[in-house]
Amino acid sequence: MVLEEKWPVLGRHERAAEWPRVWTDLGREPRTIDAYARGPAEHLQVCERDEADPIASNRLHVAAFVKELSTRPSRRGPNAITLDSGAGLANATP
C-alpha cells in the first residue's frame, strides 16, 4: 500500500512523508506503518482545514487537535465497546 494514496495529505507535506518511509525502510509491517501514519495525517488535515502551519504549531493548536479527537464520534461506529463515552479518543490521565 502506498501511504500517499490512503493519506494524500502526507504527500503535500514533504517532512511528514519522510517519516512513514523511514518506518518502511526499517521493515515495519504495512498495517503498523498505516497506524503510525494516521495520527500525523489527521493532524495535517486539521492544520489545512484551519489554515494553520503545521511546522509552526504550538500548544494551542495541539490542544485543539486533541480536543477534536476526544469529542468526535468513534470511527468504529456507535456500537463500539469502550470504557468511556464512546468518543474516538479516551483521555488516559485523570
Structural commentary:
The chain is mainly α and 94 residues long. It is built from five helices and no strands. The protein has helices at 3-6, 8-11, 14-25, 30-49, 59-71. Helix 3 packs antiparallel against helix 4 (30-49). The protein is globular, with a radius of gyration of 15 Å. 10% of the residues are buried.
Instruction: Give me the strand/helix succession.
Output: HHHHH
Shape: globular
What value does the average pLDDT take?
A: 80
Provide the helix percentage. Answer: 55-70%
Distance between the ends = 38 Å
Global structural class: mainly alpha
Biggest sheet layout: none
Radius of gyration: 15 Å
Helical stretch count? 5
Q: In what range is the share of β-strand residues?
A: under 5%
Low-confidence stretches: none
Number of E-state strands: 0
TL;DR of this structure?
It is built from five helices and no strands. The protein has 94 residues and is an all-alpha fold.
Question: Which key features would you list for this structure?
Answer:
94 residues, mainly alpha, 0% strand
SSE blueprint:
Elements: H1 3-6, H2 8-11, H3 14-25, H4 30-49, H5 59-71
